[in-house]
Amino acid sequence: MTKPNFMKSRTLLSVCAGVGLAVQIVTGAMVASTVLSTGTAQAAPAGCADLQAKYPDLKGKTLVNAVNPHTPGYEALDPNDPTKYVGFDIDLGEAIGECLGFSLTYKSVTFAALLTTLQAGQADIVISDIYATVERAKAADFITYLKVFDGVLVAKGNPKGITGINLTMCGAVAAENTGYVEVPLIQALEAECKAAGKPAPEIQLYDNNANCIQAILSGRADTYVNDVNTVDGAVKAYPDQLAKATAVTLPYSVGIAVPRNNVEFRDAIMAALTLIQESGMQVEMMKKWNLPEDQIEAPKLVLAE
Amino acid sequence: MDLFLHYLTQPYLVTGIVYTLLITGLGLAGASVMGIVLAGMQLSRFRALAITARIYAIIFRGTPLILQMIFCYNALPMIGIKLTAVEAASLALALNEAPFIAEIIRANIISVDRGQISAGQALGMTPLVTMIRIVVPQAFRSMVPALGNEAVSALKNSSLASVVSVQELTLRSTQLASANFDFFSIFFASGLMYLVLTGGIAAIQIVVEIMLDLDHPNPKARFARLLPWYREPTVAEAETEPAVEEVVSTPLPAPSAKASHPVDRHKRAQAIAGSRPAIEIGALNKSYEGKTVLAGLDLTVRLGEVVALLGPSGSGKSTLLRCINHLESWDSGTIRVTGRQLGVDTDGKRLSPRAIADARTAVGVGMVFQNFNLFAHLTARENIAGPLRWVQHLSKFDADRRAMELLDRVGLSHRADALPRHMSGGQQQRVAIARALAPNPAVLLLDEPTSALDPELVAEVLEVIRRLAVEDGLTMVISTHQISFAREVADRAVFLADGAVVEEGPAEEVLTRPKNPRTAQFLQIISEDAALTA
Questions:
Q1: pLDDT the model gives residue A42
Q2: Cβ-defined contact of A69 to B90 (cutoff 8 Å)
Q3: B window 233-292, beta carbon within 8 A of A
């Protein structure tokens, strides 16, 4: 994640500030920029009452969850009612909220802006299929909840014969999202390809999952490596044009991002997540969204070194 | 196709339009306010303000809007200003559009004819009144197309607010496409929505342009002409009076008894010699970029006297006239008009432009310009009545009555509702004279009033001036090249060369028997010229 580095000038800030106040007066409370969600109401696991007693500050609060809702299965609009977000991540967040007594609203941002939004205080938590890496942990603390299984999306029939992030990808065009962990992995192939006397893979960067899928559909890219369930969803939507070449395991976990240095909040989320996993609720939700059960991972912290 | 229609009417996307319009509206409103302030700063007399505005423009015009949006959304919270997404996006859009709007405003203000601003000043308008009544109405008319452009561009730019999570049309379209994979139907639908919105702006622009069109013969038809079946009336229907081209000379009313009799020169000279000085100029010096324009000029003009200023171009005639009512400042020397110094207070300190305007009104110096300088957006009547309302604070009724009275006097009451550009040069100059006379000035300055006229139109203007001298006994200083007119009308001729008076005396004498060789040479050239053009 990159940090905004264009905020050196004090004058800029004060100009923004002055007019900002004016705009604030104008817009006031008339606008809510967040969309409400639909949590499937399930009975909170036993033990949640104790957690609410332990972390009373969270009770009754409304927190903002920043999401990049372009990943059907994890977080996307409900096609039948686009005023709602649905998916595994959404259900999980709602369950955690219910356990700790807070409710969530959602803020839709690009994938690359998920952690900057959290850092700027414009969101309180990020549950958006984001992989917990040590690099990203410089911007936020992570609590993991899923293992990462990636799928390799290709055009039907796999014309380039791609079998994973390996030498078969040399000379191919890979579509990826800005900020995805797959980007450096594919970039790292360059040396390997050169050594084998092959051209390096080319990477096209897009803003969201849908654009990456479109890149393959339109023939601009040969492959798109991302979460296996997302890849399966794309194949399901375009069975005549797309295929999953293979599944790869990446040495990462999917994590919930919370602000750094707010240990109490982090502990509360982790405790609630643990309860939800132990009660079997998470597995239920994974079944509902067609995620393989063995993807579950016991909560652990990923922090900056 | 069904899907396309479905998305076109889907409440989710339609609500996105509301956010798009909200950001665009707030952004443009903020940008307009800031643009006016920035343009004002750039046009200001104070350098520091102009530089500040320039630096602002460099920064906010020179950085991408998308960065400004992210900045207002994600960076401002670090100094404790946490705006909602809509606020941050509107703010960024306003900050970004402001320099563009400022430049549109500035360009159109600058392009308003400087002569009209001088005329406004000469009529005693304060800078603010000149700005509001003369500059802004004309500038606004010409800035509408550019502002329309800017509004369309702002509407499209509002789609960048999707990067800071504003639920506007673009963000909603992409999210929806991600969820159900119906890319093309969704994007065609949202594309059409954008087209409808920008088309709406274009329609508003066209309506505003038509409503502001001054050239339309019938102002009452401003709305009717928006209808597609409306046809412009033919010229014959529209103008009951003859078209401009046919009017070579509109006759003046019959002269009064006084004006139709020859003037008793001797009696007049005696009366003037006994009257108080109207203008006293002492040791006036002015140089411009190192070039001396006025060099220790002395001149006294008495009440009721008509002085003809003669001299080659560059001799300082216009500058002298402009100094007398302080349209220009000078380096040293004094000018008193009816005993009062214009432009400095009793301690000799320089006054502000506003205070000078008030002093000009109090003293009463009218000015007629070579290029008429009528206010182009106002009818003949309004050119006269307007300043009376704004400066002398007459009621509308009194101002209109005075305007009609004066138009009648210069033989143009039938052209009261005509715009300056629809009148001949001679008619325009007669309106300009009427305008200068309206507040009853003590002194009337005329700067080559016939130089910009076609030869056949000169006579009608000179006749108006002649009658003023004879009928009203008005104090006048006229710079002119019309020797025979000067000989007939002026009591005294003053010959200027290199910014100083080289010869002066009774008009008849100086113009027929010049003593100074430079005067003689100048008169010789002028008479040869006149013979050639005759």
A1: 58
A2: no
A3: none
Give chain A's length. Answer: 305
CB–CB of B178 and A22 under 8 A? no
Query: Does residue B139 share a domain with residue B51?
Result: yes
Task: Return the CATH number at B198.
Answer: 1.10.3720.10
Q: pLDDT for B101-124, tens place per residue? A: 999 999 999 999 999 999 999 998
Does B176 share its domain with B314?
Answer: no
B170 and B286 both lie in a single domain: no
**Domains in chain B, number:** 2
Distance, in Å, from the CA atom of B465 to the CA atom of B409, rounded to the nearest integer, reads: 11
ipTM: 0.72
Q: What CATH number is associated with residue B318?
A: 3.40.50.300
Judgement on whether residues B164 and B309 belong to the same structural domain of the protein: no
Same structural domain, B68 and B193: yes
Which chain A residues have a beta carbon less than 8 Å from that of B30? 19, 22-23
Q: How far is B163 from chain A (nearest CA, A)?
A: 6
The chain A residue lying nearest B98, using CA atoms, is A19
Using the beta-carbon criterion (under 8 Å), do B74 and A120 form an inter-chain contact?
yes
Q: Is A36 at the interface with chain B, CB within 8 A?
A: no
Whole domain around residue B57: which residue ranges? 2-111+124-226
In a domain, B423, yes or no: no
Which pLDDT score is estimated for B45?
84
pLDDT at A18: 46
CA distance A112 to chain B (A): 10
Calculate the alpha carbon distances from B455 to A260, B427, B460 in Å: 86, 13, 10
In a domain? residue B99: yes
